[in-house]
Amino acid sequence: MVTALYRRYRPETFAELIGQSQVTDPLRTALRTDRVNHAYLFSGPRGCGKTTSARILARCLNCAKGPTDTPCGECPSCVELGRDGGGSLDVVEIDAASHNGVDDARDLRERAIFAPARDRFKIFILDEAHMVTPQGFNALLKIVEEPPEHVKFIFATTEPEKVIGTIRSRTHHYPFRLVPPAQMLEYLQQLCESEGVTVAAGVLPLVVRAGGGSVRDTLSLLDQLIAGSEGDTVDYERAVSSSATRTERCSTMWCWLSAPATRRRRSAPSTVSSRRARIPAVSSRTSSSAFVTSSSSRRRGERGQRPPRRPRRAAGVLPRAGRPLRRSGALPRRGCGQRRTHGDDRRDVPPAAPRAHDRARARPLERRL
């Protein structure tokens, strides 16, 4: 039985984590200067190192020579939290997808009161934190805001907007991002050399593109190609038939996000442009006259389009000064002493002096009388 590549090569220090310098550098500085916060929020796409960084941070905090930015890897805590370790008693990983209620939050608060069994801190890692219900988050507010000195919280999520604001405001938020193609390609070349696998030209760029910037997805694809290849050589034909069209849409989005801002505006894909996404697909039989090309043609009513109507005035609303009254019965005529309401204050509006068009309008009525 062979262990998956992403488990065999899971980073054990912040120096081994690739493509996340915006997260690792501030965390290592905080560890060196002893300015570690009591709660952290790690967010980003799947497979980019959120849970791995949470474990590395736990190793750094509970290392026998720490807190340090580089774990020793020899003490019991570092060994238990390593690749082949079984986990530490003082580092609790909770799957928030199945422990997301008020009862689970109450149980966590009761466990956080007790001191660590052996290490320096008791660390709670809540993976998939966006699955916690609002009631569960509210039950955690007090313990997250004012935890005991020996307690640290690390929330990991792919959807930080679903974490309520009162929790986010009590944490240090570090957003992770997808790994750029150049760093991913270099990392895969080093990994293939370590595994003793010969890869044909063009295979690794194809795997990098299909992985979409996620390290775990990329390593899973490479592991699949290695497992399905004869001997220690991965052929290009086998790679094309296995993974070339697997995640084409995801790779298109990832390439667009990896491009500079100037290129993004010029070559935005249809999955990114919300305006294009709202336009329905048109068959070849559909007449081109069914669409309006611009706002000016919409106003002129070109190509058989009806110009937009002006919004009607609501019934009972007095017209603006200097505008003639409508003949509709929805609005009372001037000079009839209509009532106007201002909240609870009601008063009679004095009759206005009749105008020429009002006198002309009243003549037929006088003849009937």
Automatic annotation (TrEMBL):
Residues 265-369 are annotated as: Disordered. InterPro entries: AAA+_ATPase, DNA_pol_III_sug/sutau_N, DNA_Rep/Repair_Clamp_Loader, HLD_clamp_pol_III_gamma_tau, P-loop_NTPase. Its EC number is 2.7.7.7. Residues 36-180 form the AAA+ ATPase domain. Residues 281-296 have a biased composition (Low complexity). CDD domains: AAA, HLD_clamp_pol_III_gamma_tau. It holds the Pfam family DNAX_ATPase_lid. It catalyses: DNA(n) + a 2'-deoxyribonucleoside 5'-triphosphate = DNA(n+1) + diphosphate. It comes from the Bacteria. Keywords: ATP-binding, DNA replication, DNA-directed DNA polymerase, Metal-binding, Nucleotide-binding, Nucleotidyltransferase, Transferase, Zinc. Residues 341-369 have a biased composition (Basic and acidic residues). Residues 297-313 have a biased composition (Basic residues). DNA polymerase III is a complex, multichain enzyme responsible for most of the replicative synthesis in bacteria. This DNA polymerase also exhibits 3' to 5' exonuclease activity. PANTHER family: PROTEIN STICHEL-LIKE 2, REPLICATION FACTOR C / DNA POLYMERASE III GAMMA-TAU SUBUNIT. DNA polymerase III contains a core (composed of alpha, epsilon and theta chains) that associates with a tau subunit. This core dimerizes to form the POLIII' complex. PolIII' associates with the gamma complex (composed of gamma, delta, delta', psi and chi chains) and with the beta chain to form the complete DNA polymerase III complex. Belongs to the DnaX/STICHEL family. This is DNA polymerase III subunit gamma/tau. It comes from Naasia aerilata.
